[in-house]
């Protein structure tokens, strides 16, 4: 075959291949979607990654703290964390995680995120400055949620 006959064939194939990935590409899951379908293990996204990447998650956390009269600790975006794992509580699907201050997990947040409502409940536990523990809940958790948050 001559090169002149092959050129249109190659051009057509190149155009078809260039168009194919756009049609065949599977949508990339957000970190929240990954967390909803993971097994709670190390392959699940971690709190700091989701906090940095997901605006609704970050907003729910920060608004919950503000309403409870708490300030977000500066270490939160880079804290030591557990993966977000799916749990069902009070008949609703939630994501459970915790984050603590590096080298001092005596200061920590435990959270339950509701992806459908884009809301969060949680608890902050840290020093009260007198040798005791200060525990402050935010986001109005139910009794079952508060128990789970305290244990996490």
TrEMBL record:
Pfam families, sorted: Ivy
Keywords from the UniProt entry: Signal
InterPro entries listed in its UniProt record: Inhibitor_vert_lysozyme_sf
Domain of life: Bacteria
Name of the protein this chain belongs to: Ivy family c-type lysozyme inhibitor
Signal peptide annotation: 1-24
């Amino acid at each position: 075959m001559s090169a002149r006959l092959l050129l249109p064939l190659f051009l057509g194939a190149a155009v078809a291949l260039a168009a194919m990935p756009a049609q065949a590409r599977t949508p990339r899951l957000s970190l929240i979607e990954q967390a909803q379908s993971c097994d709670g293990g190390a392959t699940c996204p971690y709190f700091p990654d989701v906090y940095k990447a997901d605006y609704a998650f970050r907003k729910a956390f920060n608004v919950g703290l503000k309403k409870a009269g708490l300030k977000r600790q500066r270490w939160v975006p880079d804290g030591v964390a557990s993966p977000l794992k799916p749990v069902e509580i009070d008949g609703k699907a939630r994501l459970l995680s915790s984050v603590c201050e590096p080298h001092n997990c005596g200061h920590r947040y435990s959270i339950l995120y509701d992806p459908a409502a884009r809301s969060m409940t949680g608890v902050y536990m840290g020093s009260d400055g007198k040798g005791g523990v200060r525990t402050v809940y935010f986001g109005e958790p139910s009794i079952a949620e508060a128990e789970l948050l305290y244990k996490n």
